[in-house]
């Protein structure tokens, strides 16, 4: 119990709280200089405290914008609270999330891809390892798009997965209209027009993420951080493998931002480097556990694994990059995982989603790609497909 003398004091303090919050918020707003690339989120602070404000009904709700956090924990915590739905009637946007440790060799091609389409239909985000050099620097649509929470990222560690989580969290907070979130690598190129890509993705109610079960290396991947390291949260039979190049819808992006339980199991140092690819299992495992029916279990980023060069798929060299290659990649049917989704649309009907992106292309392939950008790459009727 509070003593009788302290009680009025306590009440007074409590009544002052809204005022204190208002002043703190204002100080933060004027005190922080935020470069334009970092974006903001909206928050109605005043309405939270309206019951304590004597004439709340007459005071307008003031929308303030808060900087996006730089450190992982507050970043993901805030992102986990965003509205998973878009405001009714709003135009859906695509979030293109580039994860890189080098300059983007296909930046001029992406520039052409975005050229001419409305800026209200997409956002670009770049996660760039800050310990690397970027020469030439990011420019054009990539100018000032590097997210300020970027941290060092390397293969065979959980840092690539952490980077993708940061991109998701940043994009969730940056724009409430981001509807689909696609991860793109530096060696990845678009093989359809923006228009086609946009229509395909915003009209989907499901995420596109490869979810494969019973791959020959499932056990090795599951034990990469230690023989029982995944238990009890992720049992061997719950573990999934898939391409790290997915497109997640907003609700699933928020599932990723909210997840701690599964992430701590993947955010561990591997004991075996040769099977350490957490970025190829974390997202597939998590979404398969949480909402398998909300996923089309396939990636829309084409890759050729018939060649495996030390964990790297086939890389297309400039002389191979001809219109027929692009048309062939477009016509290929994606590989669909099967489990947990019995009776849903792709097992009932033969589903045939079109690849939108492809990898890996050698940086020297830029020239032939640019040469056929208008006639083939961004020409959706090229080759009759
Ligand atoms: C992931 O692991 C790294 C290195 O051990 C650690 O610094 C970081 O805090 C971890 N992140 C989470 C969210 O657990
Ligand atoms: C899965 O589909 C098959 C074939 O349509 C059906 O026989 C089976 O009962 C289904 N299983 C479940 C769990 O729905
Ligand atoms: C796109 O492809 C069609 C079919 O091959 C062709 O007729 C047309 O000329 C192409 N468009 C451009 C701009 O090259």
From TrEMBL:
One of its GO terms (molecular function) is glycosyltransferase activity. It comes from the Eukaryota. It is a single-pass type II membrane protein. Keywords: Glycoprotein, Glycosyltransferase, Membrane, Signal, Transferase. Pfam families: Branch. Residues 1-22 form the signal peptide. This is Core-2/I-branching beta-1,6-N-acetylglucosaminyltransferase family protein.
């Amino acid at each position: 119990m509070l003593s009788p003398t302290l009680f009025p004091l306590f009440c007074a303090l409590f009544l002052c709280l809204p005022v204190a919050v208002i002043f703190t918020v204002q100080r933060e707003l004027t005190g922080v200089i935020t470069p334009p690339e970092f974006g903001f989120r909206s928050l109605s602070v005043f309405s939270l405290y309206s019951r304590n404000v004597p004439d709340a009904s007459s005071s307008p709700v003031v929308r303030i914008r808060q900087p996006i956090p730089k450190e992982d924990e507050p970043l993901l915590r805030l992102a986990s609270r965003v509205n998973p739905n878009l405001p009714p009637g709003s135009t859906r946007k695509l979030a293109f999330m580039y994860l890189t440790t080098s300059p983007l060799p296909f930046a001029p091609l992406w520039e052409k891809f975005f050229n001419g389409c409305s800026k209200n239909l997409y956002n670009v985000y770049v996660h760039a390892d800050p310990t690397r050099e970027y020469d030439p620097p990011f420019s054009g649509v990539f100018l000032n798009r590097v997210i300020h929470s970027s941290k060092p990222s390397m293969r065979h560690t959980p840092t690539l997965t952490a980077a993708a989580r940061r991109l998701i969290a940043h994009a969730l907070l940056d724009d409430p209209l981001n509807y689909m979130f696609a991860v793109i690598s530096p060696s990845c190129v678009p093989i359809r027009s923006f228009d086609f890509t946009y229509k395909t993705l915003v009209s989907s109610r499901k995420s596109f993420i490869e979810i494969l079960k019973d791959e020959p290396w499932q056990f090795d991947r599951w034990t990469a951080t230690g023989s029982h390291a995944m238990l009890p949260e992720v049992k061997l039979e719950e573990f999934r493998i898939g391409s790290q190049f997915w497109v997640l819808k907003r609700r699933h992006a928020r599932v990723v931002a909210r997840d701690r339980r599964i992430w701590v199991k993947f955010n561990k140092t591997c004991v075996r480097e040769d099977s350490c690819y957490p970025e190829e299992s974390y997202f597939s495992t998590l979404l398969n556990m949480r909402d398998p029916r909300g996923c089309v279990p396939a990636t829309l980023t084409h890759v050729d694994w018939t060649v495996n060069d030390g964990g790297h798929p086939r890389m297309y060299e400039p002389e191979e990059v001809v219109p027929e290659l692009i048309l062939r990649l477009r016509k290929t049917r994606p590989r669909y995982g099967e489990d947990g989704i019995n009776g849903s649309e792709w097992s009932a009907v033969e589903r045939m989603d079109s690849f939108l992106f492809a990898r890996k292309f050698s940086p020297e392939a830029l020239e032939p790609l640019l040469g056929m950008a208008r006639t083939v790459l961004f020409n959706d009727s090229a080759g009759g497909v």
